Amino acid sequence: MKLKTMIILIFSLSLVTSSIILDGNLKIKAAMIDTIPNTTRTVMNYNNHFLSVTGFASLGVSDRSHYLGTSYYREVRTGKDFLQAVADASSGDVKVIKVMEDLNLGWKALNLNSAEQKKYSFISKYSEPMNGYTNPLLDASGVSQLNIDNVNGLTIFSNSGRTISHVEIKLQRSSSDLVFRNLNFDGMWQWDDTGEHKEAGWSFFKINGANNVWIDHCRFSIAADGLIDLKNGSTNVTLSWNEFGLEASENLPEDSGIYQSIHFMEEKFISNQLDSDSVYYNMRNAGATKEQIMAYAAYHSKSHLNGSGDKDYMNYVGSNGVEIKDGNQRIRLTIAYSRYHNIGQRVPMIRQGSGHLYNIYLDNSTHHNVLDHVEAIAKYGTDNLSRALNARNGASIAADTSVFNDIYEPITGAEVQGMDTENMNAPWNTLFRDAYNHNLIVNSRITNKDGTYIGSSWDNNGENLFTKGFNWYDKATLGNWAWSSHIVGVENMDKENPPTDPFMFEYNYEETLPYTYNVLPLNSVESIVTKYAGVDKVTMGTTDWLKTNYDPVIQNLVALVEEYWIEGEITNEHTAHALSLHLTAVSQFEKKQDNKKIIKHMENFKKLLDHQKKNISDHAYDYLFQSANATIAKWQE
Questions:
Q1: Which pLDDT value is given to residue 320?
Q2: Is residue 188 part of a domain?
Q3: How would residue 8 be classed by pLDDT, with cut points 50, 70 and 90?
Q4: Rg of the chain over all Cα atoms, to the nearest angstrom
Q5: Is residue 372 part of a domain?
Q6: Is residue 509 located within the same domain as residue 611?
Q7: What pLDDT does residue 637 have?
Q8: pLDDT tens digits for 274-286?
Q9: In angstroms, rounded to a whole number, what is the distance separating the alpha carbons of residues 552 and 273?
Q10: 25 inside domain
Q11: Phi-psi region for residue 463, left (φ > 0), alpha (ψ -120 to 50) or beta?
Q12: Burial of 101 (0-12, 13-18, 19+ CB in 10 A)
C-alpha cells in the first residue's frame, strides 16, 4: 500500500518528440508518452480508494446504503421473488435487491403460469438456437430475456457472490442509475458446431439505452454472443473489477456448461450422428480428444460491442416531437481493473463514442497453448482471433497501464474508416469513409510470440507490438489525441434520409476527461487484478456493498506506515512504531464516530510527523500529512 502518488495534470505533447519523413514529404511528429493526453490520474498501490465507483459511471450513480432497513430494501431467494422485486423497482417501491441464493432465471426453470407471464411481462422466452440445443443444461432450463425498464435508481448485489444463470438482462433507455455488484453470471453458452458464433444471440447484458450503469466485482463466464454490449446511445457506463471468460482446462466439473455440451457432442460423434462439415467431427476424426476440445471451448469470441449499427449515427425526434437520444456518439464507457481470459475481440469495439480502459489484464495464453499443441484443433478450429481495442466511425479508445499477455493485436482496425469497410453496408461504407479513429495504449506491457514490449502505441512512430494488427493511413492521429468526434452539420440531418456525400468530422482535441482516476503501478497490475477482480474476491457487509465511495480509513494509514518502514521510506523503527501506535489509537475513536477526538488526535499526529520528519522520506511525509488533513476535513463536515 505504498502510495507513490503522481498527479498527472492536463498533458502536453512537448515531452519527447521526433520527426520522420514519409513518402518524401509527409512530416509527422511522434511522441513517446506514458499518460493519456487531457487526463488527470494518480498512481498508487491498492487500497480502499479502488473500491469506489470510477470512470464515467461516477458521474451518475448513487449510494444506496441509506435504504438498508427500509421498505425499499428487498432480499430475494427465488426466481419469482426476484421478478417481483424488479416489478416493484419499476414502480419506485424497491431501490435495493439483495440476492440471497443462486437464481436460475431460465424460461423453463421459472415455469410461469399465464397469470404470472402477464404480471411479469418484462421477462420472456429467448428464441432457441437455430440448430437446436447442444447444451443439455440450457435445454432443460431454457433461456430468458429480462428487461429492466422505467427504473430510476436500483442496486442488485450479493454479499456472497451468488449466481444468476440462463438470462440476458436488458437495461432499457427509460432506466438510469443502475448498479450490479458481486454477482456471478453463467449459463449462456453452448457448443456451436458451425464455428461461426451466429446461431444464438445470448449475451449476459445488453445495455439498451440505459444511462449511468456500474457493473462491479462480477464474474462472467462465456456466452453465445456478447458479454456486455451497449447500444442505443447508452452513456456513463463503468465496468470495474470484473472477471471475464474462462481459463482453458481439460478437467472441468461435470455440472459445467462446457462439460455438458462437449459430452453431448461426444455422444453424437460416437453414434455417427455428425455430418462431415461438423467442427467437432473433424477435430475428433483428426485426433483431438474430447478433453482437448473442452479446453479449446473455453474461449469467448465477442466481448463488448458498443454501438449496434452504423445507422445509429445520430439522435432523432420521434413522432411525438421528443428527441430520442440513441446516437452512437453518446457512448461513454470505462473498463477498469478487470481481467480477461481467452477473449477473441472487442475489448472493446466502439462506434463513434468514447472508451477509457485502465489496469486491464488480458491473457489468452491457455487458449493459444491448445492451438499450439493440438494440430487437429488448430486445423479445424475457428477461434483464433486475439484482439482488443477497435475504434470505428470516428470513435476514441485509450488504454492506460494495462497488461496484454498473448494478445496478438492489442489495437485492430484502421486509422481511417475507409480502410476497414469489409463488414459495412452501403451507404455507411461511404458516409464514414473519411472518419479518423483514435486508438491509444500508454504505459503498458505486451508479451506474445513476437516478444515483449513496454511503452506506448505511439512509440517508434507507431510501429511496435501494440499496433501490429492496426492499419495506419497517414498517421495524423499519432501525437494528436481527441476524446471524441462530431459529424459536421449532423444537427440538420434526417436519420432516415442520410446524405449521399461522406460525412465531415471535427475532432475535440481540447476536450478533457470529465473525471480523475487511480491506476496501479504497471508491475502490480497482473497480481492485484488477479487477486481482486471477479466475484466474491472482496469481503464486505451489506452497507458497504451499497456504497459508491470508500474514503481511506485510519486503519489503512496504519498499514501504510508499516509498509513505509519495510520499504525504507521510514528509516527509524521507533519512528514507525510511534506513528503506528498513534494511528491505532485514533482508529478506536473512528469506530465510535467521535469526530472531536479524531480531529484532535490527527492534529497531534501531524505534530508527531513534524517531530520525526528527519526519519521519513519526503514522499512518505507528504502523503501522510495530506492524509491527516483529509481525515480532519472529513470529520469537520
A1: 87
A2: yes
A3: very low
A4: 26
A5: yes
A6: no
A7: 63
A8: 999 999 999 999 9
A9: 61
A10: no
A11: beta
A12: middle
Tell me how far apart the alpha carbons of residues 520 and 225 are, in angstroms, rounded to a whole number: 31
Residue span of the structural domain in which 635 resides? 551-637
Are 409 and 457 a contacting pair, CB within 8 Å?
no
Quick check: bond before 253 cis, omega within 30?
A: no
What does each C-alpha distance from 594 to 4, 205, 547, 635 come to in angstroms?
Answer: 30, 44, 21, 9
* Residues above pLDDT 70, as percent of the chain: 94
Task: Report the pLDDT value the prediction gives residue 191, as an integer from 0 to 100.
Answer: 98
291 and 430, same domain (yes or no): yes
9 pLDDT exceeds 70?
no
Cell for 17?
518528440
Contact 211, 189 (CB under 8 A): no
Residue 360 sits in the same domain as residue 490: yes
Asked whether residue 11 carries a pLDDT value surpassing 60, the answer given is: no
- Residue 1 within a domain: no
Mean of pLDDT values over 507-533 = 97
Same domain for 577 and 498: no
Give the helix/strand (H/E) hosting 486: strand 485-487
Say which residue the cell 462439460 belongs to: 259
Label residue 130 exposed, middle or buried (CB < 10 Å: 0-12, 13-18, 19+).
Answer: exposed
Q: What SS3 class is residue 474?
A: coil
Strand bridging mode 451-455 / 409-411: unpaired
Chain center to CA of 520: 16
Same structural domain, 122 and 61: yes
Number of domains in the chain: 2
